[in-house]
User: What shape does this take?
Amino acid sequence: MRAGLILFTVTISIFSDVLLHGLSHTYFQDTKPAGSSDPQFTEKFFTQTLDHFNFNIMGNGTFSQRYLITDQYWKKAYGPIFFYTGNEGNIWEFALNSGFITELAAQQQALVIFAEHRYYGQSLPFGKESFNIPQVGLLTVEQALADYAVMIRELKEQLAASHCPVIVFGGSYGGMLSVYMRLKYPNMVAGALAASAPILSTAGLGDSAQFFRDVTADFENISPECRDAVRGAFHLLKQLADRQDYSGIQSEFALCKPPASPQDIQQLYGLLRNAFTMMAMLDYPYSTSFMGKMPANPVKVACGTMLRGLDLLANLRDTAGIVYNSTGSLTCFDLYSLYVQCADPTGCGLGLDSLAWDYQACTEVELCFESNNVTDMFPPMAFTEKDREAYCSKRWAVVPRPGWLQIQFWGDALSTASNIIFSNGDLDPWANGGVRKSLSSSLVALNISGGAHHLDLRGSNDSDPASVIRVRKAEAELIAQWVKMERARLTSAYTQLSGSSDLLF
Assistant: This one.
């Protein structure tokens, strides 16, 4: 099948200060942004194969996969291609919050492409039926990688860019995909920048208590009293729940309806814990826009709220409000519309994107994290492999495959790979689920002191810590080296085939 460009093209300008979500959150509205600052992206659609690995089951069908492209900085037919491996949400949100990629493109004269992941945003293979069974079964990591490989090949041909080196970029789950692209398609991808990519924990390697322990550590580092206040507030909430004082809980937390069962209490616990998770992940040194306004240094702001007085329950409610009611427009909190429990204990988000991520967390991506109130400040909330299997069997009629990502994408056996940057910020609770130490001269771990979730992918900001400025510089130098090496390899290969050293750039 020969892919092509179809439907329509919309040119639209990128604007800054919209929060790039991480692995656990897919709350974005699928609307096109307003604004008029550079760089300009063009929105296009690519005719993509439905099923790359079976030729008859889906009738050789295709779907329209969205991507964004800008050649504003590109030295045509010569400059590299910077390809963002889109993750679990609307691709505009990643493009609008990955300013480092376009800054680097301006330096290195690159073409920039942001590809949307199948089943997210507007790239729905079966439209409104995409999340029915069995149609949802084509939502796999392997299919997504094949989408990107096909798109890269066809767009290079269409743009007369067959000799342009390709570097892939991604943050969080998208960073995982960038690693996997380099492992699976090294013939097409010369290198990968994987920012905040938890490739170990999501493959079932590591400690199930790690994530919420690291969320807690972010608040504890501001003040041990902050951690204790949060733990104390949850203890008071438990006392009310044990007495079944549901009207009291409704009053204390400004709930739209009183809880009526232990299930409702668990939902409240999840909603509150999720607020702390978001603030820890997104602890940027400047304000960002995301479901309202997230303040600069939200963990510090949260601790100030938790420690402002003796009424711990009111403090806990208002701390959660930093995330759920940043505009102050909500008059009450609806437990089930603000947060949805799913196969990812760190949160799946809301809307159709949350369905897609829930399915992935039920199949290949392992997220069996739990809080225990011993190594963390949250109520005990277990999520074991048995819990995951029971939920996923009921919700999606699937049985998860523990260890599958280790088999498919090497797990921690990465020593024979090359040309991958693993960047992580020490404020990010996902960081310790990824690669923190360099494995070779070309498998480089870069750690960002004072950095939150994929801070290095965001555009330059006057409030950036010196650590992220240094890391971006190191990333730029490594990527320039990879591009040079790949260009030399392509020149050598062309010479051997044609007997000429004159590449047609």
